[in-house]
Amino acid sequence: MSAPKLTHLNEAGEARMVDVSDKARTAREAVAEGCVVMAPETLDLCLSGQAKKGDVFATARIAGIFAAKKTHQLIPLCHPLLLSKVEVDVAADASLPGLRVTARAKVLGETGVEMEALTAVSVACLTIYDMLKAADRAMRIEAVQLLLKSGGKSGDYRRQS
Fold it and tell me: What amino acid positions are annotated as catalytic residues?
């Protein structure tokens, strides 16, 4: 079995933007998640609404949505996409302890939205860290990963735990 061809490299092995002009426009969706692990006291502070910088949940959601829309400006070989939906959810998870961030991105287009979902999660997690770092500099951002993607020539993908 041969290794899959890396589409972002030309024949000389140089980075390039993939030409998607011949691809079919299809409905595409991706979901990603990540976690910010923190001390239980930091989670309590976050849940109390008393974080010095304001509403951690709302700010992280807005930051994630904004980041998804700007992915092509952050990741050099990504195409600019006319996103039809970006949804970011931030939920407390006492088992971490910390916050679990999930992002869903949708588009009708020639290329997928995995990078937009992953960027949304990453920036939302960084925003959570920024908003709570005065209370807990030992927080960790973990497990940023693609959970699922649908649409396009390569078909559907679902992470197996």
Answer: 130
Distance of alpha carbon 24 from alpha carbon 110, whole angstroms = 6
**How does residue 15 score in pLDDT terms, banded at 50, 70 and 90?**
confident
- Rounded to whole angstroms, the Cα distance separating 23 from 49 reads 47
Rounded Cα gap, residues 128 and 105, in angstroms: 20
Rounded CA gap, 86 and 161, in Å?
Answer: 24
Q: How many residues does the chain have?
A: 161
Q: For residue 155, what are its two tokens? A: 């078909």
Reading the block at residue 13, the tokens are: 């092995």
Cis peptide bond upstream of 97, omega within 30: yes
pTM as predicted: 0.90
